[in-house]
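sry for the spam today, last one i promise. C-alpha cells for design, 422 residues
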C-alpha cells in the first residue's frame, strides 16, 4: 500500500508554533497566534480567495555546445479556490528562480481600508508551508476593515536569517484633486531559501512590473522603486493645489511684491486680501495632509535604512521627497498663519465697525431720550394749565347760571287772560 505524503502545511492550525525559524527565546508564538486569531474577523474574508502566483523559471545554462535558453516570462496563475491554493503549496520551487504570491484586497476599487481576499485557514497554510517568520504577523495584522492602534502598520524591516519582512507605503491616484489620492500600505516577506516572496496589497504598478520581469527577480527593488517613483506626481498635485488655493486669496501687493506694490500708498494691505474662513480651513486640512505625507515618507526612509543595500537609489529619491515635503510644509504653515492673521484682522475690523455702529445708535438713542424728556416736560406744563382752566370753569359755570337767572325779566300771570306775561 502506497504511503501518503505529508502535505507541507501540516500542523498549520497552530501557526506559528513549531516552525523552523521560530526562536522561542525572542518570539512569543502563542502571542502571534492569538493576534492572528483576534484579527480574523476584520482581516480575512470568510470564503473568498483572490491571489496571483507568478513563477519565474530558471534559464538553462549552455551545455555541450547548445546555447543557453533565454529567460522566459513568468507563469501567472489566479487562485480562486482552496484546492487551487493547495496545489500551488504542494509544488516544489527548486526549478524556479523565484515565486511571487500576491494577496489582493477584497475590494480593489475601494480606496479605504478593506479585508484581504484570503481566508484565515489559507493564510495559516501559506505561512506554515514556507515557514514564514512570525514577525511578519506584525505587518500583516495592520490591514483589514478597522484600524487598531497597536496593529498600525509601521516602517522598518525584520531580517531573520534568510528571511526579510518589511512594510512600505505608496500613493494611489484615483483622480486629479488631492482628495482623490490615497496613501496605502504594502507588506512584503521574502524567503531566500524557498525563493518565495509574499506581497500584501501591492500597487497595480508593482504587479505590472513583476509580469514583465525575466529570470532573476529582486522583489524588494521592484516594490521600493515603484513606490518611490509614485510620490513625485503626488507632490506635484499638492504643490499645484497650494498655489491655486493661496494665489486666489493673497493679493500681489502682499504676496508677489509686483509693480502694484509701489502704489499702495496709505492703504492697509490686509484690506486688499480676499480671505474667508473656508479658505483658512481648507489650508489647515491641506497642512495636515502634507504632515501625513512627511510622516509616511519618514517611515519609508526607516525601511530603506535597513534595506540600504537593496535600494540605494530609491533611498536618495525618498530623501529628496522628504526635503520637498519639508519645504512645502514650511510654505504652507507660513501662508496659513498669514491667512489666519488676515482673517482675524478682518474679524476684529468687523467687530470695530459694529462697535462704532452701536456707538452711533446709542448716541442717537440718547438724543431721542433727551427730546422725549423735553416733550414730557412740556406735556406736564400743558397738563397744569388745563387743570387750572378746569378749576376756573368749575367756578365760572355756576356764577354764569346765577347771572343768567338774575338777568331775566320778572314773570307774572295776567288775571284777565289767564296767561303768563313778562
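last one done:
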Amino acid at each position: 500500500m502506497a504511503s501518503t505524503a505529508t502535505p507541507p502545511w501540516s500542523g498549520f492550525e497552530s501557526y506559528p508554533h513549531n516552525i523552523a525559524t521560530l526562536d522561542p527565546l525572542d518570539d512569543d508564538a502563542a502571542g502571534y497566534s492569538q493576534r492572528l486569531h483576534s484579527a480574523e474577523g476584520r482581516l480575512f474574508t470568510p470564503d473568498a480567495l483572490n491571489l496571483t502566483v507568478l513563477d519565474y523559471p530558471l534559464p538553462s545554462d549552455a551545455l555541450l555546445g547548445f546555447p543557453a535558453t533565454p529567460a522566459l516570462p513568468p507563469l501567472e496563475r489566479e487562485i480562486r479556490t482552496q484546492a487551487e491554493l493547495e496545489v500551488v503549496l504542494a509544488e516544489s520551487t527548486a526549478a524556479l528562480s523565484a515565486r511571487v504570491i500576491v494577496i489582493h484586497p477584497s475590494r480593489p476599487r475601494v480606496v479605504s481600508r478593506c479585508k484581504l481576499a484570503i481566508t484565515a485557514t489559507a493564510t495559516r497554510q501559506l505561512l506554515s508551508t514556507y515557514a514564514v517568520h512570525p514577525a511578519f504577523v506584525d505587518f500583516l495584522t495592520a490591514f483589514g476593515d478597522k484600524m487598531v492602534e497597536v496593529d498600525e502598520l509601521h516602517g522598518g524591516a525584520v531580517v531573520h536569517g534568510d528571511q526579510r519582512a518589511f512594510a512600505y507605503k505608496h500613493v494611489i491616484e484615483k483622480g486629479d484633486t488631492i482628495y482623490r489620492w490615497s496613501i496605502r500600505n504594502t507588506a512584503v516577506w521574502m524567503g531566500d531559501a524557498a525563493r518565495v516572496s509574499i506581497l500584501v496589497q501591492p500597487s497595480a504598478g508593482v504587479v505590472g512590473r513583476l509580469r514583465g520581469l525575466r529570470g532573476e527577480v529582486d522583489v524588494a527593488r521592484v516594490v521600493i522603486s515603484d513606490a518611490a517613483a509614485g510620490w513625485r506626481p503626488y507632490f506635484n498635485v499638492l504643490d499645484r493645489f497650494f498655489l491655486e488655493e493661496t494665489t486666489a486669496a493673497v493679493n500681489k501687493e502682499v504676496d508677489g511684491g509686483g509693480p502694484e506694490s509701489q502704489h499702495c500708498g496709505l492703504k492697509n494691505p490686509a484690506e486688499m486680501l480676499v480671505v474667508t474662513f473656508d479658505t483658512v480651513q481648507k489650508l489647515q486640512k491641506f497642512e495636515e495632509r502634507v504632515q501625513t505625507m512627511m510622516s509616511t515618507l519618514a517611515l519609508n526612509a526607516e525601511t530603506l535604512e535597513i534595506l540600504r543595500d537593496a535600494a540605494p537609489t530609491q533611498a536618495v529619491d525618498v530623501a529628496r521627497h522628504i526635503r520637498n515635503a519639508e519645504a512645502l510644509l514650511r510654505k504652507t504653515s507660513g501662508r496659513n498663519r498669514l491667512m489666519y492673521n488676515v482673517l482675524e484682522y478682518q474679524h476684529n475690523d468687523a467687530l470695530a465697525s459694529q462697535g462704532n455702529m452701536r456707538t452711533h445708535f446709542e448716541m442717537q438713542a440718547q438724543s431721542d431720550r433727551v427730546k422725549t424728556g423735553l416733550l414730557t416736560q412740556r406735556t406736564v406744563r400743558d397738563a397744569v394749565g388745563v387743570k387750572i382752566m378746569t378749576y376756573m370753569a368749575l367756578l365760572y359755570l355756576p356764577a354764569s347760571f346765577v347771572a343768567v337767572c338774575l338777568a331775566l325779566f320778572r314773570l307774572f300771570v295776567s288775571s284777565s287772560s289767564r296767561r303768563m306775561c313778562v
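The first helix runs from residue 29 to 38. ok im logging off now
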